[in-house]
Amino acid sequence: MIAKKYDQNIITLALVRYAGVSPRTFDLLINIFRSLDEILLTEESELAEIEGISAESARRISKVDSHMEKAAGYFKELAQKNIRIVTRFDDDYPSHLLEINDPPPLLYNRGKMPEVNSKIISLIGTEEATQPGIALTTKIAKLLVSKNIQVISSLKPGIDSAVHVSCKAEGGHSFAIIDKGADNIKGEVEVPVAIDIVQTGGIISEYPPDVPFHERNFKQSNRLIAGISQAVIVTEFYEDSRHVHDILEFSHQIGKLSLILIDPEHGVLSDEKCLALAVQHGAIVFTGLEKIDDIIKALV
Fold first, then answer.
1. What does the pLDDT average to over 274-288?
2. What are phi and psi of 103, to 5 degrees?
3. What band does 2 get if pLDDT is binned at 50, 70 and 90?
């Protein structure tokens, strides 16, 4: 039986990479069949009868056993690049991702994964960061590290890159969700920050290492930043901060705590329209760092 010969990571990889199973389809299959073994043993005709699975998708899934050797080979190739696959069946798969509608069946990880039993906060902001925004972000990143909070952000320039630099400066670690494969990390900002991150934290992607950035990846990765943490904190954002607006919208959809931090010295690092929209998306606005301890204690 295929399920006896190959472990769950390789079977999941084969379903995603070679059978083209999407996060929603994978979630549907697991909810119906409860195990990979049962999926592999299901006939094409039975798969095709499931609402939400096309005839072509049913055909590919039923033939996935023919791709197992390729999947095993690719698994070894990734290991040689120091990239591991973390599936929904692994103990270190981020449990909060299961709260979103389409949790990824697998993640590609270079470095470490966040500890599942520790508190996690996403700290994000605009790419067009100002000095006050970076200063405020640095303060809160260092505070979170001092409280042993795991910090998540993207690799984008501006506020998000400042998050990782600040965490390292405080002797802590951080994690970056990226919107492409790890081999496509490029640029004067991304590369050095990514190198620093993997020394103590990790790079996480839904995409294989050879996948370049594509516009559709942008929103998909933002949903992971919202989903992976227990709360989202924004320090600076404006109308063109799509990254931030996406994450606040996703947070609202899944009931995730989101907060806008106001600089006590410089005031709101946003504009009135954006702040109003964030509040419509359920964000809580607060000033200064004094309430951070209360927020941390409230995270479960």
1. 91
2. -60, 135
3. very low
pTM to 2 decimal places:
0.94
Contacts of 151 (CB under 8 A, 6+ apart): 120, 121, 122, 123, 141, 144, 145, 163, 167, 172, 173, 174, 175
The pLDDT > 90 percentage for the chain reads: 82
If one compares 273 and 74, the residue with the highest pLDDT of the two is 74
Amino acid identity for residue 41 in this structure? L
Buried b (16+ CB within 10 A) or exposed e, 13-49: bbbbbbbebebebbbbbbeebeebeebbebeeeebbe
Tell me the per-residue pLDDT of 209-252, one tens digit each, with 9 for 90 and over: 999 988 888 889 999 999 999 999 999 999 889 999 999 999 99
CA distance 104 to 165: 28
Q: Are 147 and 118 in contact (CB under 8 A)?
A: no
Strand partners, 261: 286
Strand 284-287 and strand 257-262: the pairing is parallel
Answer yes or no: are the C-beta atoms of 119 and 146 closer than 8 Å: no
Q: Three-class SS of residue 174? A: strand
Q: How far is CA 93 from CA 31, 76, 282, in A?
A: 18, 20, 27
> What is the rounded distance in angstroms from the CA atom of residue 85 to the CA atom of residue 129?
33
DSSP string, 3-49: HHHS-HHHHHHIIIIIS---HHHHHHHHHHHSSHHHHHHS-HHHHHT
| Rg (alpha carbons) of the chain, rounded to whole number | 20
